[in-house]
Design goal:
The complex is a heterodimer of chains A (237) and B (742). Chain A has 237 residues and is an alpha/beta fold. Chain A has helices at 14-24, 67-77, 87-94, 151-159, 218-228, and strands at residues 2-7, 28-33, 44-47, 81-85, 101-103, 111-119, 135-142, 146-148, 163-168, 187-191, 197-200. Chain B has 3 domains: 1-67 and 199-376, Phosphoribosyl-aminoimidazole Synthetase, Chain A, domain 2 (Alpha-Beta Complex), CATH 3.90.650; 68-197 and 445-567, PurM-like, N-terminal domain (60s Ribosomal Protein L30, Chain: A), CATH 3.30.1330.10; 385-420 and 569-742, PurM-like C-terminal domain (Phosphoribosyl-aminoimidazole Synthetase, Chain A, domain 2, Alpha-Beta Complex). Chain B has a 7-stranded mixed beta sheet with strand order 8-10-7-11-9-12-13. Chain B has a 7-stranded mixed beta sheet with strand order 23-25-22-26-24-27-28, with helices on both faces. Chain B is globular and about 85 Å long. The two termini of chain B are 36 Å apart. Classes of the chains: A alpha/beta (237), B alpha+beta (742). Chains A and B meet through helix 1 and strand 6 of A and helix 9 and helix 11 of B.
Chain lengths: 237, 742
Amino acid sequence: MKFGVIVFPGSNCDLDAYHLVRDVLKEKVEYIGCDRRSLGDYDVLILPGGFTYGDYLRSGAIAARTPVMEAVAGFAERGGLVLGICNGFQVLTEAGLLPGALCRNGSLQFRCRQVYVRVDNNSLPFTNLAAAGEVLRMPVAHGDGSYYAPPELLQELDRNGQVVFRYADQDGRTNTEANPNGSIDNIAGVSNRSGNVVGLMPHPERAGEKALGSVDGLVIFKSLIGHFQSREVVVDA
Amino acid sequence: MPEQEKAGTDKPEKLWRKLGLSNHEYEVIVEQLGREPSPVELNMYSVMWSEHCSYKHSRSSLKLFPTGGPRVVQGPGENAGVVDIGDGYAAVFKIESHNHPSAVEPYQGAATGVGGILRDIYTMGAQPIAFLNSLRFGPPDNARGRYLFAGVVAGIGGYGNCVGVPTVGGEVYFEPCYRGNPLVNAMCVGVMPLERLVLGKACGEGNLVVLAGARTGRDGIHGVTFASEELSDQSEKDRPAVQVGDPFLGKLLIDATLEAVDRKLVAGVQDLGGAGLTCALTETASRAGTGLEVDLEKVPLREEGLEPFEILTSESQERMLFIVEPQRLEELEEIFRHWELPLTVLGRVSAGKMVTVRYHGEIVAEVPAESVAGGSPEYEPESREPVYFRELAAFDPLGLPPVEDRGKTLLDLLSAPDVASKEWVWQQYDYMVRTCTLEGPGGDAAVLRLRESGKALAVAVDGNGRHAYLDPRLGGMLAVAEATRNLSCSGAEPIGITDCLNFGNPEKPEMFWQFRQAVEGMAEACRVLEVPVVGGNVSFYNEVEDEAIYPTPVVGAVGLLEKADQHCGIGFCAEGNLICLIGPHHISLGGSQLLKTIFGRVAGSPAGIDLSEEKKVQAFLRRLVAGKLIMSAHDLSDGGLGVAVAESCLKGGTGAVLDLPSSPRPDLDLFGEGPSRVLVSIRPADLEDVSKQAGEAGVRLSELGWTGGKKLEINCGGSRVVGLELEAMKKAYEEVFSWMMK
């Protein structure tokens, strides 16, 4: 299988995602420039974190209008798997590929710290190796991570199992202290209706090696690989 | 800025004083030029002969620093120092101040400080991998103080987070003397293959002079002149002298420049920082011994109507100068087109040693590069010991009543802004991007793995203004010793330092005395510890209305770990380990955090340092880490043993029991401060081995107690002097800033 990491001007976690897939997971991975209008034979596309176009206007807003995003939309339309991390999540909401919006953190400050997230839908190709309600430890690093959706949309997301990750404490309880940015309903990540596009603010690619303090993020990547290759993924992290 | 617009067109004889040059300096210019300078030329001289660019009051003292060594590839004089780290790679690093801009516009001042030091690193061809910073403010007990503190922190994060380079460490101290003149020292560390090194030299007659990056505007005109004067209540009006950063453009410029360097398309690279285009043109020519001819009207402008002198002295950010062989231009243009960055040929390298600047065909300046870049007079300022020095040294802190409630005192120290956890600060910095951060902020040194070689770099920044104020010479030594000791605590061998020397007005003999003493102390420590100074920065005139800051030498140190997975942190990570103190018992309350926090005094003499002992302690520590014989190591600093043991408990989430010998002054034992002291935890099975090695190394090792439980208990001669729950210490240590900065 093959991953593609989409690089916009100002992306800065592209290297981290690339490194994890190539050096830790030992899978094929390529960078994809944002001026590309068509995509190759990728199985999973990753939109990495960073400050695309300086996050000027609104976070992710300008990147969402680059040529490659039309190709990404087509890829998603055909059922391709797309994972947006941090700024990549913001780009996907701005592009209309994911519901809701990401607003300024409640603290009005950038926040970099370890958080716990609870897997609230483990039936997706992104999460099917996680246990129901499994709690993962990984970092956040963002200024605009407060997820928002209006009440009727929230109900719909819940009904459809589109809330994939919620900020929680170590024991899986959602509460204010566990929420680093004031996001509504402690939402940390969502999917589209058909479950093939997922975005989350925390960084699973930064939680893939023991040396970095957590390997909990690997479950997401292992799930994706397992989806394409019916083999157990053994990783020396 | 009407005054400066006028400055460009006035007759020169009225001009040089306004531009900050002395009558004597003007005479030297006339002599070196062989004629009266034109107004544009005088502007060029004025920015390059400012203290900030010319180091005219510090140059002779800086020669005291040892700058060579087997690993040194490039010492001071280039954009950054370069040190060989083996396997064909080099570490590139430098620290620089942005104090005055941050005093009037904290967010942009700090942001462009970060952007400026970043350019110095990738200009050499290195991939930036880490930022650190050293900050000083007035106490955050008033709105203005909090505004400066919050603004600077936000600015550092705003730039660093966006460019994708982790901010992994630093220090913050608060003293009334920094109230009107905060210190913002930013350090950047990069790594590159040695063969990619590119210097800021305009080599090769006929090569093209190319300007890339942002358009030039009116921001930061004469910023270096502003940085070379004392601040006053009028300084607010100098806000236009502060540059404005664009980190997005900065990020594109890194990517484009490194690609160009990687493809060997450029013969020389120089960033545009202080003194803007003038500095870049004259320094590159001067270093190469060549001349340059440029057409100023080709510089892309942000707005119409800039005068030639403004174009030459603007400090607009995110600009680079390249020296390019003509046949390489097309490829270079292609890269910059891809990144959507402007790139313009301004002129070419010429024979001779003159920088000739034309504006629409007319010569507006024709100056010898070496004269402008390096011809300024070198001063040997008068030096006089200040009256306060002996007065304060005579103060004996042991004459004060002993502190009785040591538990409460420890909590007070843990919640003192100087000591308390700076998480409020560093959670605003992305310290993990690039996924190489093995140890982040909050320890003695940060550790970054090098994917290329399996090695790691440790980095730390240290300085103590109070110590340097009370004894500048000793303060200089202590800064070098502490920064390198922090590296050794992580297991890394110090391979080089960069220094940022923050002082008052050097034209005042007492201020210059502080400077000279501190430099002598630092130089001596560097010689004994065998660590070279490979670059740095001097910031003088840190005074507001005649009140100077504490002399504040800050040391940024870089160390090498042969194996990335063999590094040591500060936290007690397991129960049942022995706690030992490595190093001497020579301590003092002079200049201590206890004296400041509890008694509100900055006086007395800090404990002196035996540099050869320091060297032995550091070498011993590195041996222990490499042999996996210690589980934690934490340098004793502000607040002495009491604070250090509390920090190791909190970091590892494990309590401790210490049994100290009986003492007439337990408060001195607990909170006295002295150099060369490190608290370690050891598995019981390893004690014999460690003791034996300590004996061989000639280093003192004292058993103090055990790790375990959820409390910190300290007994002195069998009686309890401290008994605190970890939760209570955690609250004191971690909640101060979030509460104070609400």
